[in-house]
C-alpha cells in the first residue's frame, strides 16, 4: 500500500487540545476518507472520491515525498522553505511495518505556509527538481504538481479562515 499523507483541518478554538493530542484529530481510517470507502471495512469498493469534505481534509497520496524534497533543505545549503513545515517528517520503520509521523500546525503557522506555497510555480517544481540533490524526474514532478495545487488551495483556505491542521505521514 505504501506510506501516504493525510491532513485534517481544525478550528482555532481547538488549537490547545490539538497540540496536546494531535492524533485525536485524525480519522481512524484516513485512507477510507481519502478513497471514499466505509471506515474500517475489510472488503469494499472505493469510489476514489474523498468522503471527507475537501475543506476539512487534504490527501497527498505519495506525493508528499516530492513536495518534501522541493521545500526542504538541500545538500547545497539551501534552507528549508516555510512550507516545509507541512511536509517535514519521516515514518519510523519496524520489522512489521512503521510508526506514522504526526504534527499539528497552528492557525498562525498556516499564513506563512500559504504565502510560501503560492510562490512555488509548477515550472519551479520541474526545474528545481532536476537541479537539486533530490533530482526529481520529470515523471515525479508531473505526478506531484496536481498535489501541489491541492495543497496550495487547502492551505490558503485554512489561512483565510483562521484554521490549523494536523497531518499524518504513514
Low-confidence stretches: none
Structural class: alpha+beta
- Which range best describes the helical content: under 10%, 10-25%, 25-40%, 40-55%, 55-70% or over 70%? 25-40%
**Treating each run of at least 4 consecutive H or I residues as one helix, how many helices?**
6
Order of helices and strands: EHHEHEEEHHHE
Write out the strand line-up for the largest beta sheet, numbering strands in chain order: 2-1-6-5
**Basic shape:** globular
Question: What integer value in Å does the Rg equal?
Answer: 16 Å
What is the compact description of this entry?
The protein is α+β, with helices and mostly antiparallel strands and 170 residues long.
Write the layout of secondary structure elements.
Layout: E1 5-10, H1 15-20, H2 30-35, E2 57-61, H3 64-71, E3 92-94, E4 97-99, E5 101-105, H4 107-118, H5 122-131, H6 138-161, E6 164-169
Antiparallel strand pairs: 1-2, 1-6, 3-4, 5-6
Helix pairs in contact: 4-6, 5-6
Amino acid at each position: 500500500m505504501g506510506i501516504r499523507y493525510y491532513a485534517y483541518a481544525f478550528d482555532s478554538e481547538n488549537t490547545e487540545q490539538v497540540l496536546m493530542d494531535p492524533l485525536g484529530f485524525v480519522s481512524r481510517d484516513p485512507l477510507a476518507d481519502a478513497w471514499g470507502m466505509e471506515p474500517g471495512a475489510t472488503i469494499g469498493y472505493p469510489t476514489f472520491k474523498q468522503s471527507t469534505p475537501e475543506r476539512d481534509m487534504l490527501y497527498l497520496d505519495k506525493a508528499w515525498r516530492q513536495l518534501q524534497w522541493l521545500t526542504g533543505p538541500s545538500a547545497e545549503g539551501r534552507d528549508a522553505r516555510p512550507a516545509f513545515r507541512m511536509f517535514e517528517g519521516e515514518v519510523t520503520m519496524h520489522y512489521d511495518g512503521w510508526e506514522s509521523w504526526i504534527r499539528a500546525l497552528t492557525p498562525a503557522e498556516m499564513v506563512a505556509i500559504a504565502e510560501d506555497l503560492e510562490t512555488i510555480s509548477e515550472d519551479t517544481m520541474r526545474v528545481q527538481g532536476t537541479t537539486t540533490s533530490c533530482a526529481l524526474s520529470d515523471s515525479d514532478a508531473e505526478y506531484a504538481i496536481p498535489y501541489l495545487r491541492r495543497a496550495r488551495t487547502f492551505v490558503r483556505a485554512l489561512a483565510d479562515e483562521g484554521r490549523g491542521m494536523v497531518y499524518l505521514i504513514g
